[in-house]
Specification:
Largest sheet: 7 strands, antiparallel
Helix content: 40-55%
Low-confidence stretches: 1-10, 12-29, 47-55
Shape: globular
Mean pLDDT: 78
Strand order of the largest sheet: 4-3-2-1-7-6-5
Number of strands: 7
Structural class: alpha+beta
Radius of gyration: 25 Å
Number of helices: 5
Order of helices and strands: HHHEEEEHHEEE
Length: 181
């Protein structure tokens, strides 16, 4: 059965990264030598794989920046929206948030239509506040950021931020629905 260059590269890399006493000993013990062109292909493939997430992250951040500019250009300062927040935190009920002149003025728990206590209003984000959280996640940088952005106004409709992949329960999820202005 013929062996492809990708199979040879994979086999070489599998052997090369096994724990061995030293590189020199490893080569002698495993008799691992790749022809020069195949070595270049493997090296190029690894470099391409290593850079791909950076290119995607830059593109995603640029799309986010363009969406934020659309939001700012729309000049919407008075609006309301339904916020569903999911995180490892005390149960955050679905909340209808009303913003006037860019500042959260009131909020109501959707389930029982009761007002949110004034002391809690400061902890509820406006859409500008959500944009800021996303920008901070990019600056940190968070391990994973997934967004769905409104095509017309640019505001985030769905936000998923995983700050640390290896840590449980620190993710942040926002869903923004029923936006009106």
């Amino acid at each position: 059965m013929p062996v492809s260059a990708a199979d040879e590269c994979s086999a070489f890399l599998g052997k090369a990264f096994q724990a061995q006493p030293s590189i020199q000993t490893r080569h002698k013990e495993n008799n691992m030598r790749l022809p020069q062109p195949l070595w270049r292909i493997c090296t190029s493939a690894l470099l391409l794989l290593a850079l791909t997430p950076c290119v995607h992250a830059d593109t995603a951040h640029q799309e986010f920046a363009a969406a934020r500019q659309r939001w700012q250009a729309a000049g919407i300062r008075d609006y309301s929206f339904l916020l569903l927040q999911r995180c490892f935190c005390p149960r955050a009920p679905a909340t209808r948030i009303t913003v006037q002149n860019g500042v959260v003025q009131s909020a109501r728990n959707v389930a029982d239509d009761t007002p949110v206590e004034p002391a809690r209003l400061g902890g509820l984000p406006s859409l500008d506040g959500i944009f800021q959280k996303i920008e901070e996640a990019y600056a940190q940088p968070a391990d994973e950021i997934n967004l769905t952005l409104n095509p017309t106004y640019g505001y985030p409709e769905h936000v998923f931020i995983d700050y640390y992949k290896r840590m449980a329960d620190e993710e942040l999820v926002y869903e923004i629905r029923d936006f009106t202005h």
